[in-house]
Write a structure and sequence with these properties.
It is built from 2 helices and 6 strands. By secondary structure, the protein is mostly beta strands. It has one domain: Nucleic acid-binding proteins (OB fold (Dihydrolipoamide Acetyltransferase, E2P), Beta Barrel). About 15% of the residues are buried.
Length: about 140
């Protein structure tokens, strides 16, 4: 069995980080994906879908520190559904993506990274191998 989703889209808001009583970090944000198509009249239309993303532990800390509203990002994870009760006792249902991999796709200005004391090049020994794009091995 396989439960895997992949998105490339823009963040709809800055990630929100919270710490559980156990000290575990959880970050949430939304990502928008667009589908373009021609309608019956031949006019281009854009359909935007919003997806709720949840990141845990180190991935949550990394996302909260680096991701901002509007950034283009790659997100991979599993689709989950959960039920909760609102303040009025009504059942509510939520569909979320629990992320296992997040990667910014924005090109960054090297001068900004240097001024922050961050190297502009990732040393070859720490670059991700093809297929491993979880960002956990990045030195910054």
């Amino acid at each position: 069995m396989l439960n895997k989703v992949t998105f490339i889209g823009n963040l709809g808001r800055d990630p929100e980080l919270r710490k559980l009583d156990s000290g575990v970090s959880v970050a949430t944000f939304s990502i928008a994906t667009n589908e373009n198509y021609k309608d019956k009249e031949g006019n281009w239309q854009t359909n935007t879908e919003w997806h709720n993303i949840v990141c845990w532990r180190g991935l949550a800390d990394m996302v909260e520190a680096r991701y901002k509203k509007g950034h283009l990002a790659y997100v991979e994870g599993k689709l989950t559904h959960r039920k909760y009760q609102d303040k009025d006792g009504n059942d509510r249902y939520v569909t979320e993506v629990v992320a296992s991999t997040c990667r910014l796709l924005e090109k960054r200005d090297p001068s900004q990274r240097q001024s922050a004391g961050v190297p502009t090049e990732v040393p070859a020994a720490t670059k991700s191998t093809p297929g491993t794009i979880d960002g956990s091995d990045l030195p910054f």
